[in-house]
Amino acid sequence: MPILRYISVALASALVAAYAAIWIVSPAPLERVTTTIPPLRIAQGDGLVIWGGWRTVEGYNHGSTTGVEIICNRERRTCLEAYASLLFHTEGQDLEAQAFAYEVTAWDDQHLVAISKDGMGECLDRILNVDLMGEGATLQWRPGEGDCEGDTGKAVLVGDPL
Length: 162
What we know:
Strand order of the largest sheet: 2-3-4-5-6-7-8-9
Order of helices and strands: HEEEEEEEEE
Distance between the termini: 59 Å
Number of strands: 9
Structural class: mainly beta
Shape: globular
Largest sheet: 8 strands, antiparallel, barrel
Mean pLDDT: 81
Number of helices: 1
Strand content: over 45%
């Protein structure tokens, strides 16, 4: 059985050499990988479909990368937003997913305005403003009615090229 001994030694040597090569090269950790958000797209038909990601321009910025898809139904006067966020930490990342339901308050050929009352928990409202002519959108969050206190902010819709 000397052949099995030679094969075992050769296999162990190959594994040690591969491990040493990987350790010397030291591949980049995942935190340095560039993330891509969906392309900015606003498509109209019987309803409205919006793709992209939110970039915070006012208020607290979590330092996250987001992706969003919003589907609006003209007949029901509702919008549903599917929201995913990749949060970066000093060690690792977290993926967060949420859904927000909006009631459309205004919708014409030029713009759409929808609100999600208490959409961000507690008493924060989300207000979606879509510029249908310029194909852009903004999102605002602020305390709702009553004795509500909370963070306010604003984000703009952005997207990566295909």
